[in-house]
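Escalation from tier 1.

The customer reports that the assembly of four entities below gives different structure tokens on two consecutive runs. Tier 1 could not reproduce it. I'm attaching the input and our single run for tier 2 to review.
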Amino acid sequence: MRVLESGIGELLQPYSMVEFREWNRTQKPKGFQDKRMTEQEAIARFVHDGDYIGTELYGTVRCPMSLAREIVRQGKKNLRAVGQGVLELDLWVAAGLISAMDITYHGLEIHGVSSVLRRAAESGRLKLVEWSNGAIAWRMKAAAMGVPFIPIKSMLGSDTFRYSAAKVVECPFTGEKVCLVPALVLDVGLIHVHRADPYGNAQIDGISGFAFEMARACKRLIISAEEIVDPEEIRRYPERTIIPYYLVDAVVHAPFGSHPGEMAYLYERDDLHMREFLEACRTEEGMQEYLNTYVYGVRNHEEYLERIGHERLSALRRAVLGR
Amino acid sequence: MRVLESGIGELLQPYSMVEFREWNRTQKPKGFQDKRMTEQEAIARFVHDGDYIGTELYGTVRCPMSLAREIVRQGKKNLRAVGQGVLELDLWVAAGLISAMDITYHGLEIHGVSSVLRRAAESGRLKLVEWSNGAIAWRMKAAAMGVPFIPIKSMLGSDTFRYSAAKVVECPFTGEKVCLVPALVLDVGLIHVHRADPYGNAQIDGISGFAFEMARACKRLIISAEEIVDPEEIRRYPERTIIPYYLVDAVVHAPFGSHPGEMAYLYERDDLHMREFLEACRTEEGMQEYLNTYVYGVRNHEEYLERIGHERLSALRRAVLGR
Amino acid sequence: MERLPYTPTELLICTAARLMEDGATAFIGTGIPMLAASLAQKMHAPNLIPVFEFGGTGAILKRLPRAVGESRTFYRAIAASGICDIIETAQRGFIEYGFLGGAQIDPYGNLNSTVIGGTHDRPQVRLPGSGGGNDVGSHCWRTIILMQHERRRFVEKVDFITTPGYLTGPGAREAAGLPPGTGPYRVVTSLAVLGFHPETKRMMLLQLQPGVTVEQVRQNTGFELLIADRLEENEPPTPEELRILREEVDPERLYI
Amino acid sequence: MERLPYTPTELLICTAARLMEDGATAFIGTGIPMLAASLAQKMHAPNLIPVFEFGGTGAILKRLPRAVGESRTFYRAIAASGICDIIETAQRGFIEYGFLGGAQIDPYGNLNSTVIGGTHDRPQVRLPGSGGGNDVGSHCWRTIILMQHERRRFVEKVDFITTPGYLTGPGAREAAGLPPGTGPYRVVTSLAVLGFHPETKRMMLLQLQPGVTVEQVRQNTGFELLIADRLEENEPPTPEELRILREEVDPERLYI
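Tier 1 run:
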């Protein structure tokens, strides 16, 4: 089972499963503590300059946007990120917080390429290592499983592989070629959920994206939740817990935390705001103005929501698709 | 990443992920068909002599016992099984249906070793290949992922490894030793669930054991369910679907299908019956008598339940632990 | 084509929709494929199973999704899981069709959605990247590619193989370790429907869109195109297709 | 010991319970460990997090489970998932204590629960096999072994290493690829509490159970035992421990 081929991309986040085990044993809160705090406190305490960071799900869908904006507000520097993103990555890259990215997709969905990414990548300011969307999720899955790699059948034969840090080997059981992707252990992860209790036990309605895997692949994990519930409610339906409390370092109560993105069964995406953003992000200046208005210009999530306007927000609740 | 060590155990179920892909493309039902049928029809149509078979969860907990008994009744021969089991394996081994087993645990829980297993193993009648419980689940997980193996950190350094069909290699990323377990693609799997619709979309309450993995690792899958529900109920809570219909070949409506085992939130384990079984299984004769009374002596699950008695069954419902 | 009763985009949608069989599983990406899947469900394929990257399986496409993760992709779905389950389902061979787009395509159906020009570290144009594209193109049995038919997009050699087509030709996918029997099946444009030659695996013109000539297709293709012996003309969108597309599939006019 | 106010089993349970710290995670197997965990929860460790093989995490042990998969193992639990999630959680280093039993143990804490005598294919006695034992012994930081203290069980060499202890001695676990810092922590019997020498990794007598002599322990151990310099005597079960054990933990007398 020798290595037949190696991608030339840099392994942006070196890792050791032995060290990760030690961390999980000594640094994670096993007791039942009330971890509720504000965006400001959570980001100040658990996100550090130079961190390797990730968010789940992405920009316009169940994304921890109130946390993403707070990171910009606090001007964290020299971050490396795992890049499945739309809006959140645009904010970070435009604000100059990101030095390198394991990228799978950074664009504007039906609205095409991200001008923010283009400016950063084409000027050579941003280092990018390529992966498929599956590969990124599987890298987190490997870390979540506590193993140093996972074999996959994606990426084979492509330049996506060539510019990644994956390897091709021969399967010792079947002789077939498989691609091995290294475990991805994030320094810090941000996940927005429908409900969590004060300890961090969290539930998600609808698709879970890669929340299960990312929550288990982070050294530090910040949860933001639309609703804080009593632990008894969690214990009544234990099969609904996707993220158990001992994985969680901070719990932030963030109603409309995914705005301008949607939250399944709770509120629709804010198309008006998205149009404003899409217009703004075309130019460096427009993007800075957007940041001034919606990030630097407000002190916290509450002020942000006031700026959006409660009428607009309740309209988004009314527009939501039921079950 | 060369192979450092190989277990001397036989790979009881040779496999090819290429062939599995072909099977999933051409042999699995993609359309919405009503798959409801009786135990008799399901076992007759989808379990064949010589098959490699598995059940989930195990004997006394959410186990498809009505299907397991029907297999004995139909006298399927020369089966190979994956062995995490208590009661169901005792029935099959005692009835002489099993020629070889990938074993992780076959015993009587707090009541110790299985005399049935002892008689079969100590006489050399039953071929056994050793695995840890995690390794067995991970082997199904590899198949479910569509990859030929999965790396794990269990089994290393033990005789459990030595008598398995696993291999030890060096991780090409970290240099550490990892154990590779081969994917396990079952010919047929049996899973008992709380509710399913006629197409086979299935939900499980409480722990899911290894249902998710096994359902995705089978060429043929028979579901038995306590309750058959309208597809609309499945579509109302899509996040509750653990087994999507296209994995399922047959849906059997089996109230008390796990008896004498328990079904979470529905009915308790039948301790009286278990005591009777534990007494009977001590001797070859006792076991044959048990089979005559509860398997050969009844034509189907309905007759079995009549033999148990509806008073006893409703008592088990009343004794159940709530949420 | 402005006098036609339909736009090039509508033609593309209707052509793609007709390729979706009832009861088949189809991996649906953002944009045109969503409209095609919705149209197919409402026309000839009520049991089409749309599968979306982040967990939605078998949704009723009541409202048109704008992204592969939003709630419209699992509205009254038969399952709402996560990305690993979905892509592993494709890896296990369960997904028949995969719909892809790209900025560049070559004669072997290799797709580029990563970089154009310059170097990888300093490209002339940086595109979004693979996303699920590479996974779909690796695992789905038949990938259907939707492209704007322009010379600068249909090139002899793509600048970057984001998603593998037939790579360098016959046997190359298998040699790379990709599952046998998979690969690009059709390329749908507003000018034509193209396939791939069974032996050489090079792109081949199969159908012309209504009123389009072989010469037009050649002029808009940057490499030598094989031509099928029996060249067919695709049926134009029917009034019924157009009505459903406009009134039921995309009444909000998000795309059309 | 029949004149004592407690049985050997009750002594074993109370001793094991005292080893469980409040707020710690503990991988609980069938039998004695379940009673110990339940007793600990009701005494000094209300926040003990029992973890069960097939998915139960943080259950309130209201009724005593008889198996690692039944509903009592996830009654009002904080999570009910599956075996992969649980064992991967241990593999990730989250589980502090693992409780194991076995038919044979050797000086390095290697455990046998597979076969005794004869050959693997034709054993004198076939035991249940590893189950989760090998996983627990490989991944949990500190495994605590509960055994009947008999000469035929405490042997120089086990017939089959089902679950790795320190294997052949210092460094052997690490050399085999097992996670550093893991391994057998205590062996609890009705005669003594034993540990392992920090350098040699051989079993060492740490505590005598009430009224037991070193000689008794030696007589019931089939290999040479190290003796701690400061040998302590374990406190007998308190009336409170016994009351809770009998009235609240196992009122149905399933085990005691």
